[in-house]
Amino acid sequence: MEQEMNESTSSNNKKLFSSRPEDWSIDEALKLYNIQRWGDGYFDINEKGNIVVLPEKNANGPQIDLMDIVEEMKIQGIAFPAVIRFHDILRSQVKSLNKAFRDVIDECRYEGRYMGVYPVKVNQMREVVEEIIDVGAAYDYGLEAGSKAELLSVLALNTNKDSLTILNGYKDEDFFRLAMSGLKLDRKIIVVIEKFSELKTLIKISREMNMKPIIGLRTKMSVKGRGKWSESSGDKAKFGLSISEILNAISLLKSEGLDDCIKLLHFHIGSQITDIRTVKDAITEAARLYSKIVKMGINLEYFDVGGGLGVDYDGSQSTNESSKNYTLAEYATDVVYGLKQICDLEAVHHPNIVTESGRAVTAHHSCVVTNVIDMIQTTHTDFDTRKVTGEHHLVSDIRNLEQDLNKHNFQQIYSEAQQLKDDCQNAFRLGILGLEERAKIETIYWTISKSIVAILKDVDFVPEGLQDLEDQLAPQYLCNFSIFQSAADSWAIDQILPAMPLTRLNEFPEYQCSICDITCDSDGKIDSFVDGDGIKKTVPLHGLIPGKDYYIGLFLTGAYQDVMGDMHNLFGRLNEVHVFSDDDDPTDFYIEEVIKGSSASEVLRAMQYNPEYMAHGLKKVVDKQVQRGRITPRDGVKLVDFYESCLQSYTYLNHSKNFH
Ligand SMILES: *Cc1c(COP(=O)(O)O)cnc(C)c1O
User: Fold this and answer.
1) Which tens digits make up the pLDDT trace of 445-503?
2) Does 130 fall in a domain?
3) Which of 329, 468, 481, 522 is least surrounded, with the fewest CB atoms within 10 Å of its CB?
4) Is 361 exposed, middle or buried (0-12, 13-18, 19+ CB in 10 A)?
């Protein structure tokens, strides 16, 4: 299966970028960047050629032009890169999820309720969780936590006593103590047992506090998702009880008089479930288990299907790892109907349904906006290659190839040019060729390659060996951000995130580019992009205009990416703006909150440095140099001031108008 999928993705690479300047239109841009598909109705392009956000998924509702936000940020002096959060999208996603389940429940006269929870690990930002709780209150939408620190946060934030607080993850005594204290505060806190030995701890704490817990049991499923998170289920899964452990757990709790505390059955087959069949199979398996446990006399009230509701990052609506082949409505239908069917067959009551969807709730609401610093060309063709008398025959040979090239012989010319380039490198190592000659040969080689790419756009069939040529020639756009901070999964697990320019989408994008970040790590690059025809190694971008900023957005970063970033190269957290829509405002939005990103002194402090002490140390060295007469007192003061001001400033590059 893996094999098959890889092949089908690589076959998508075979088509060259075929749009032409004369056919360009905003419709072409929509297709090329696939924005309406991955944007799920929230993103579009306006007649100015800028990306707009439609917080109500409605072209007649508010339309927020991302460039208007960028302009307002500039006026407020907020530097890039920056995270832009759309709170309306977050609210809309929570509503859609709850409505989807309520609709199906009404439609099929299901007798339980939908009581979803938001797993905070997906994005723990206080403002995000507060917004979710606020809009979720109407649906008794709760929270899920997986660690002690997360539990502390959900205890403080989830004050709705009718919604659930579900606790997953490995637990120690304090974790259980905190959870039980929550019960005293009238919260519906359910502790999910992830491994058998936790039960003993729980029983001990429950005796100590003289309180009865609300217990969930997590089962290890035999159904596996496929893709990146498939190891979350199956016999080898890290979490969950086997069937025999579940039976033992029930008898142990019975013997302790706590069997009436078992209220929830939980499973989680992994994040980003790409295939709806996996959901159906999992529901069937878990529903049978639920029914059998109920028939043993255990009064289960909740059926918790965990997370996994996918996001269509590439917009292909397929079982690609970065996609999903189902809609939210289909997901809700399969969960509710699937469970109802088995419960009715087994003649047991319909439990309340819990989901722990995080990715689907948060992914769309935030994006990272970065400014392009420079274009890095790997294939230079601006070296003087004119003939000189007595030049080496390798140089003359490749020049002849360049002159002979036409649309009938390009394949042969390309292979001969490659051969000559190899020969040239060998000859250089042997000391036969000089620097000038090598530079000429390489320049002509790149000129030939570029001419062939131009020819390929006009031919019907692109030969196998030439399919990657355009990608090899792609320039890199150096962008002001760190992939390790802002798109961790794109580096770690090849997660695909849509990336595209925010503006000039009414102009033809003439360069096929890859994107690299400003870390000094050669891994700090993005080379998988969403395209109407599949996944490509390059993204079409516009030429840079001297003195004008060019902005690129990295989208769907609201789930995991926002909060998983690391401090590689000491690039810290980004400046952040929280945007709300306002139909009465001429720009349809206002910036409600600005959160400043990390300063150099903050990231240094996190690494155990003391910035004041560092500045003091530097000043002592400067004073010495002043005494020795190597630096003037005036320059000494300037140097120390500058060092101190850099400590206070943003960790990212400061010169936005760097290219000329
Ligand atoms: C990570 C996790 C989730 C969230 O999964 P999504 O795919 O983001 O919806 C839910 N439940 C558990 C137990 C998890 O570990």
Assistant:
1) 999 999 999 999 888 888 888 888 988 888 999 999 999 999 988 888 888 999 999 99
2) yes
3) 522
4) buried
228 C-beta closer than 6 A to ligand 1:
no
- Please write the tens of the pLDDT for every residue from 20-48: 788 899 999 999 999 999 999 999 999 99
**What's the CATH code of the domain at 223?**
3.20.20.10
Structure tokens at 96: 């859609």
Pocket test for ligand 1, best of 241, 271, 278, 362 (most atoms within 8 A of CB): 271
Task: Say if strands 64-65 and 51-53 run parallel, antiparallel, or are unpaired.
Answer: antiparallel
Does residue 609 have a pLDDT over 50?
yes
The answer, yes or no, to whether residue 424 has pLDDT greater than 50, is yes
Centre of ligand 1 to C-alpha 167, Å, is: 12
DSSP 23: G
Nearest ligand 1 atom to the CA of 121 is 1
| 322-365 residue pLDDT tens | 999 999 999 999 999 999 999 999 999 999 999 999 999 999 99
| Residues 413 and 494 both lie in one domain | no
Q: Does the pLDDT at position 620 exceed 90? A: yes
Mutate to test the pocket of ligand 1, among 144, 356, 362 (most ligand atoms within 8 A of CB): 356
The reply to whether 66 falls in a domain is yes
User: Do the domain assignments include residue 652?
Assistant: no
Q: Is the pLDDT of residue 421 over 90?
A: yes
- Whole-number Å distance, alpha carbon 528 to ligand 1 midpoint, is 25
Largest CA distance in the chain: 100
Backbone angles phi, psi at 70, to 5 degrees: -60, -45
For the CA of 359, the nearest atom of ligand 1:
8
Is residue 112 within 6 Å of ligand 1 at its C-beta?
A: no
Domain that holds residue 616: 611-647
Distance 271 CA to ligand 1 centre (A): 6
Cβ–Cβ under 8 Å, residues 221 and 233: yes
* Strand-pair category, 366-376 with 352-354: unpaired
What's the gap in Å between 425 CA and the centre of ligand 1? 52
Residue in 122, 124, 143, 218 to alter for ligand 1 test, most ligand atoms within 8 A of Cβ = 122
User: pLDDT averaged over the chain?
Assistant: 92
The answer as to whether 655 is a domain residue is no
Q: Is the same domain home to 428 and 542? A: no
Burial of residue 547 (CB within 10 Å: 0-12, 13-18, 19+) is exposed
